[in-house]
Amino acid sequence: MNQESEPEVARRDADGTESSRASRGWWDRNADDYQREHGGFLGDDRFVWGPEGLDEERAGLLGPAEGLAGRSVLEVGAGAAQCSRWLAARGARPVALDISHRQLQHALRIGGGSSPAFPLVQADAGALPFADGSFDLACSAYGALPFVADPVRVLREVHRVLRPGGRWVFSVTHPIRWAFPDEPGPEGLTVAASYFDRTPYVEQDERGRAVYVEHHRTLGDRVRDLVAAGFRLVDLVEPEWPGWNRQEWGGWSPLRGRLIPGTAIFVCERD
Question: Cα–Cα distance between 16 and 19 in angstroms, integer?
Fold first, then answer.
């Protein structure tokens, strides 16, 4: 029986088509392992912004929980739609969108095989299948934006489907982490690359085809992207690592979390 070879790691350009294809394929192949490994931390109906464990229940970045009832919310890069379940439990009307069919199947698994009380939509975040002004709020916890070659295109799509004054909150890997090795121990505390190197991180197969792509943007890039898409930045949250969280998740760990930020959360509003 042939075993699949380990992907080769490269730093090279990857356009929108290659990035989108790689993301869909990677999440379809790895959704089961991802949910098995991290599902306990993410919960079935918890809204977690990142590996530090900051959740929307305490942070209130979308607004007071009691004010969510009746509001339409688009979750971009929803995965198994745990965040949408949390929103629905508070009376909101979420729509969970993801590029991966297999990730969305886990939303059905969590519901015992039955569809949740909100729509699941498989689509690319760069071409949202919704009419202008369809939503009051939009959110994304590590969804879509780290994996797209043209983040402004995604941001403009989110801007388009939000109503005027609508809030858009998203979390991504903190840009400073790109300068450090993706290791949770002491070896991950020494700068090993330029923070300003925006060359995409690519894992590719033996034929040179990308199977995983992640794109780096500096903090300044993210702010400029938001402004270019028509958003106003209200807050930038850099969660500190809490004492109760002792887990490691990739390069995230209590050791690193006490010293450098791992997540950046952008709180924005549509003009």
Answer: 5
